Amino acid sequence: MAADLPTDGAPNRRHQMFPVLSDTEIARISRFGSVCRYARGERLFTSGEVGPGMFVLLSGVVSVTHRDGLGHVLPLVRQGPGEFLAEVGQLSGRPALVDGTAEEAVEALLVPPGQLRALLVAEAELGERITRALILRRVSLIESGASGPVLIGPSTAPDMLRLQAFLRRNGQPYQMVCARKDADAAALIAQYGAAADEVVVVCPDGSVLLNPGEDALARCIGMVDTAERDELFDVVVVGAGPAGLATAVYAASEGLSVVVLDCRAYGGQAGASARIENYLGFPTGISGQALAGRAFVQAQKFGAEMLIPAQAVGLDCSRAKDGPAAELHVKLADGRRLRGRSVVVASGARYRRPAVPRLAEFEGRGVWYWASAVEARLCAQAEVALIGGGNSAGQAAVFLAQHAVAVHMLVRSAGLAASMSRYLIDRIEATPNIHLRSHTELSRLDGCTAEGLEGLAWRDHRSGAEEARRIRHLFLFVGADPEAAWLQGCGVAVDAHGFVRTGQAIEGAAGDGYRPAALESNVPGVFAVGDVRSGSVKRVGGAIGEGAAAVAMIHQFLAARAPVAV
């Protein structure tokens, strides 16, 4: 019955996406849910509305369809007795991406999100099968372009590329519609008076946005809520890169209440890596997006709450030293506050912008700070330039070389040995269309705002010789500055470059004899992990290790602050 949903055609994958549960397995699941009944034609779940959880069909057939905001309906799959209906969004109670309608009288076991997470943890073998199916169903929706918001506009418009990148990096399916080929899309373009390079977005609930920002789009598709959060979390994690996600996984799996926020997407800089080949346990490599996506699901499985996008703009430490009643407040850009017994600063670092005139003018119009499949398609059979000599730059260069005619890699130093892993240097040297240009820096950008970047020039700083090229795509992976400005006003100690100091580096800086743990700052309960921490190794493996280690220190901190029983 599950043969209609688009997949990659692999029978094994199809079987994993739609397993049929045995009577024994359904009996084991039954203690986590309750039986519900639906009449013919009744909806079990509706696209754009919060899904009630996972349904295990006991009798009857359910038709799963996609209905976009333009009124188009696409049949996806029919499911019957022994099958379950859900995808990965139901782990955290997100809006449904599709409609589920009873074709006949249906009896089903409904497992709400909280109970679904409990099931996955309690029933390890069965939970593994269910989790794999939930993930594969989301992947299929992304690959097929048969769900999510509808993006209407030119495929190469800067705002189209911006919104695509945001949705892809957050694992959200979407559709692109050309107004020239769809009368309904053309009518919306005209109705909302969209300019030639603007994007009209139709959300699953039918609401329409013109050239929205990422926050507005996220609210429209139900990625993040706007409700006040008054609960006191054990751990507030700021940043959803490898360090932050590792903290969330280990803390939530050990019973701590955890909330994670990030202003952009999960994965951080590592999420933009085309292939990480030196991470333990993946001998053939894994993309940063895949690694981060698995950790993102894993954290939700254990009950960590995710607020993405949500930006931290301040930290209130005024109650950090109140003993058992101590708490910290993370201030969000939307005016809300998150209360935590501890805060983990995992906000990472951002790539620097070279001091080149007109750089900001071309950002999103030929100047990129990541290299995903979207950008790679734009660069097909073209020359590109890339600046940077670290591992992220090397991974991007190798990835782009599979699509571009030539990748010109500009580095100010004499070579790559001091800043890049040997395996990447070997790969770059073995790739004939990657041209390493040492002792070289970007000197000029050419073009107009309407058309985007049209050319650039670089200069050999030994000879002063300048070379101009008609290159329309420039990728920047230049150094890193810490994302720690939001900590100002709280007294968190930083080094000369703004990275957060921890452990012995600031012992005694609290001024009251407080001895911070190895990953703790001078403010009690404020920990720092990953790229934002002074002295970190700036590697994915190191960031994950720090996230795991921080949880043990948080346990000790919370135990020491627990009220004494009398």
UniProtKB/TrEMBL annotation:
CDD domains: CAP_ED
Keywords noted in UniProt: Flavoprotein, Oxidoreductase
Domain Cyclic nucleotide-binding per the UniProt entry, residue ranges: 17-137
Keyword rRNA-binding tagged: no
GO terms, molecular function: oxidoreductase activity
Source domain of life: Bacteria
InterPro entries in alphabetical order: cNMP-bd_dom, cNMP-bd_dom_sf, FAD/NAD-bd_sf, FAD/NAD-binding_dom, Ferredoxin-NADP_redctase_2, RmlC-like_jellyroll
Protein name: Cyclic nucleotide-regulated FAD-dependent pyridine nucleotide-disulphide oxidoreductase
Taxonomic source organism: Methylibium petroleiphilum (strain ATCC BAA-1232 / LMG 22953 / PM1)
